[in-house]
Amino acid sequence: MNDRIRFKTPQIPIEGILDEKNALSPLNVINSRIEQLQFGNSDPSIIKTITRELRLLACVVKTTLRDENNFLIENFQSIKKQEELSEILKKKLTNIQYLKDELILIGKKVGNTQLSIELRESYQYSDEYISLQIEKWLISILSNFDKLLTQDIKNLMIKMLENEQDYRISLNSRLILTEGSTNEDFSYIEGTIKKYLQGVLYLNKKKKDPKSSSLQVFYSIAAGLAIFISLFLGFLILTNFEVNSFPFIIGTVVIYILKDRIKDIIKGYSQKAASFLFPDQRIDIMDGFYEEKIGESIEKFYFIEKDKIPPEIFKIRQSSNIHSIEIEGKPEECIIFRKKIILFRKKIDEIHTRRKDISNITRFNIQNFLRYTDDSSKKVLTWNNKIHQLNPIDVSKVYHMNIVMKLTTFHEKYETNMYYKKYRIILNQQGIKQVIEPEFSL
Questions:
Q1: Which segments of 196-346 are extended strands (E)?
Q2: Do 107 and 255 lie in a common domain?
Q3: Nearest CA-CA partner of 434 in 442, 426, 59, 402
């Protein structure tokens, strides 16, 4: 299981990014810091801030264009009643062009200033990535609203689309799709740049092992108790049998066996007690830029018997069974993963004005499950009524994995919100085929 914690991308529309009065706009922060460099201020923190804001700007633009695209697609019918789609798009295209002009100006300032290679590369990656996101947005709008656009708007969008492609070609960018190619290089570079830019939102983690010190205490107690019992029994034997007698030898051997067994038994119970009392992992959530601890994460992972599953979780699991016989089938292996994230809101408010909400990304690797699956398909003979002969057909073998999530938020000690989510993952020997979010009832 791979787990990452990051800030949510700040929600700033293109108009807000371009607003010169908006102190939260990454564009304004970048321009003000570059101006400081041009006036001779060589503080390394200024370059670090510009680099961070360039990466943040690329993330904000990507999220904004994606959300605007989804909003237009999902709410087109209501939008059309208020204003023509072409008019809405005309305003957005104008703002996007203003944004491009601002980025070009920043590029000239970066190019004309003796700055670090890191800053130049940050600008290059951010600029190319934003260009690619604008191209993707234009393609999505053209493909979804082709018949509804006026010819003027369509021509303007096509021109902007071609300009973005030509712009990246002029930069010798590797973010160019090529016909007749596998485009593996494009996919790799896009993923690499995306990870680099989004890294500005990720938080560092300092892992701790909350069990280790406790287990050492338990093991010390086990060793001490084993020695105490062996010494106690040894004195009893000495007081009742002669040193060279046969009972004394037998008793000594028994004590030696008991000493090791007592120590091992206590160690076994200690490990179980530690698993029950302490989390598997405790992580300090660190803001890498300010080097401040802004929260902590506590995780626990264990198997559970079916009759010990919380009733509401069990009901959600059963409520969306595809077939009624599922409940009577082979018993399922049930795994519980508990995670508690504590955020220090006062500390976050002190050092951040835009990035306040946290996203927790959990990646669950199913590779080990796939090792025990059957072949993904096989041939089965069946009778074909049309041709009156036996005919082999493919039959796929799939497995279903059910995930029920209970998400609860607290303010101090008081619960503020609680909701559930359920996913059914359909997989075969090759991997995941489909993810379904079924409806359920409580």
A1: 204-208, 281-287, 292-304, 334-343
A2: no
A3: 426
**pLDDT of amino acid 53:** 93
- Number of continuous H segments (helices) and E segments (strands) in the chain: 13, 11
Contact 208, 283 (CB under 8 A): yes
Quote the domain boundaries for residue 47.
Answer: 2-202
269 and 325 together in one domain:
no
- Report how far residue 282's alpha carbon sits from residue 341's, in angstroms, rounded to the nearest whole number: 10
Same domain membership, residue 366 and residue 229: no
Residue 11 lies in a domain: yes
Pairing of strands 204-208, 2-7: unpaired
The verdict on residue 79 lying in a domain is: yes
> pLDDT averaged over consecutive 10-residue blocks of the chain (442 residues)?
77 92 92 85 85 93 92 76 75 94 91 75 92 91 84 89 91 85 82 88 72 64 73 74 73 73 70 65 80 84 83 84 57 83 83 77 82 78 65 78 89 84 88 87 76
Q: What is the pLDDT of residue 283?
A: 82
Query: Cβ contacts of residue 88 below 8 Å, gap of 6+?
Result: 72, 79
- Residue 27, pLDDT score: 93
Question: Which of 177, 202, 227 marks a domain boundary?
Answer: 202
CB < 8 Å & 24+ apart, contacts of 344-352: 344/293, 344/294, 344/295, 347/292, 347/293, 347/294, 348/294, 348/295, 351/287, 351/290, 351/292, 351/294, 352/7
Whether 316 is covered by a domain: the verdict is yes
- Total structural domains in the chain? 3
Report the distance separating Cα 299 and Cα 297, nearest Å.
7
Residue 148 has a pLDDT of: 81
